[in-house]
Specification:
alpha/beta, 13 helices, 323 residues, 50% helix, eight-stranded parallel β-barrel, binds flavin-adenine dinucleotide
Length: 323
């Protein structure tokens, strides 16, 4: 059977819709048998439920010569105590990284630490973490969420980054507004991560996966490099990676490739062996439902591997796949 691009796109859209269904997420989380089965599929992309799982996998990859990002997964948190708990967990992660000497970056969604309740709460929690991270010499990185939140995220980031230069920001190349947003960040050199964008957006605001999107991604890299920003090129797309190497940008100070844990370890190994700086983005926590849906939506053949993993016939610890 030939799966056409059109069917693949419909499947991806359906997965992204499933990802947003709070009732399905709640059902999975409250039904231990289903939670455990799906968790086996998530284990390909998520190191485990606890901080220690993330730290252990991070340590092993750091020992192999990779730079590390760590995220305590969660977003759209609407309970104030859950936001404070997430902030506390992230501060404990910062402490733990400093203590065990892993030079990692900590990534998170602002809607995990307050944005879904109040911008000021997110700002307060971000600056508390940034102060601590600065003392511990840890870099923080704000993820980018749905376009309905882009203004708020950029505004909170811009305010906080005046006092805290140790915070970076993620920009989504699929949004039509991003070249302007990048320009508006001004001339101060910053740490910027460019991604394609994981969320389903209205067609007036974003373009889908296409050669036009790849061209736009390259233009954004060029714009950022010209401004002297330190840059994480966060993609698994070999055509973009090859173009970045061809243009020599990867040799600029502070420019690196950043790929998600569990995705294309072969490519990560190849890039690292060739001497390029490669960072692996690891996650941990119980809120992996949305994350798993996004990873399957991005690459529909992953659904076959997910089914094998659920039946326990999948691959072993993903760290072993990194050379
Ligand atoms: P695609 O065109 O989606 O994929 C290109 C090729 O890469 C595919 O053909 C396939 O070969 C391979 N590939 C891609 N995804 C997978 C997969 N899941 N499994 C197996 N192979 C795959 N998105 C946000 O919206 N906000 C964020 O803050 C954010 N942070 C990110 C941080 C990092 C470090 C990375 C790497 C991604 C982040 N993303 C974020 C996700 C991003 O937006 C894309 O959805 C994701 O990276 C897939 O897009 P791609 O650039 O790899 O290109």
């Amino acid at each position: 059977m030939i799966i056409t691009k059109n069917v693949e796109r419909q499947f991806s859209d359906a997965m992204r819709t499933i990802a947003r269904r709070g009732d399905l997420k709640a059902y999975v989380e409250q039904t231990p048998a289903i939670y455990q089965i799906l968790q086996r599929a998530a284990a390909k992309y998520v190191t485990g439920e606890g901080r220690q799982d993330g730290l252990e996998a991070g340590r092993k990859l750091a020992d192999k010569g990779y730079a590390i990002s760590l995220e305590y997964i969660g977003e759209n948190t609407t309970d104030i105590q859950d936001c404070e708990h997430a902030t506390l967990e992230l501060t404990l992660l910062i402490h733990a990284l400093a203590e065990c000497g892993i030079p990692a970056r900590v990534s998170f969604d602002l809607s995990h630490i307050g944005l879904s309740i109040d911008d000021e709460l997110a700002y307060k929690n971000l600056t508390v973490m940034a102060a601590l991270a600065r003392q511990a010499d840890v870099e923080l990185f704000v993820s980018m969420e749905e376009s309905t939140k882009t203004d708020a995220i950029l505004s909170i980031y811009s305010r906080a980054s005046v006092a805290y230069a140790n915070i970076g920001i993620t920009l989504q190349s699929h949004l039509n507004r991003t070249a302007k947003d990048l320009n508006d960040l001004g001339r101060i050199p910053r740490r910027i991560r460019i991604v394609k964008g994981a969320y389903q957006e209205p067609e007036q605001q974003a373009i889908p996966r296409s050669s036009a999107l790849n061209e736009r991604y390259i233009q954004l890299i060029e714009q950022a490099v010209r401004k002297g920003h330190r840059l994480s090129i966060a993609t698994h797309d070999e055509s973009i990676i090859n173009e970045v190497m061809k243009r020599g940008w990867i040799h600029n100070p502070g420019v690196e490739f950043e790929l998600l844990y569990g995705i294309r370890p072969d490519l990560c190994s190849q890039l690292k062996k060739a001497g390029y700086p490669v960072r692996i983005y690891l996650t941990y926590g119980r809120e992996w439902y949305l994350y798993l849906c996004h990873r399957i939506a991005e690459y529909p053949p992953n659904v076959f591997q997910a089914i094998l993993d659920m039946m326990d016939a999948g691959t072993a610890d993903p760290v072993h796949n990194y050379e």
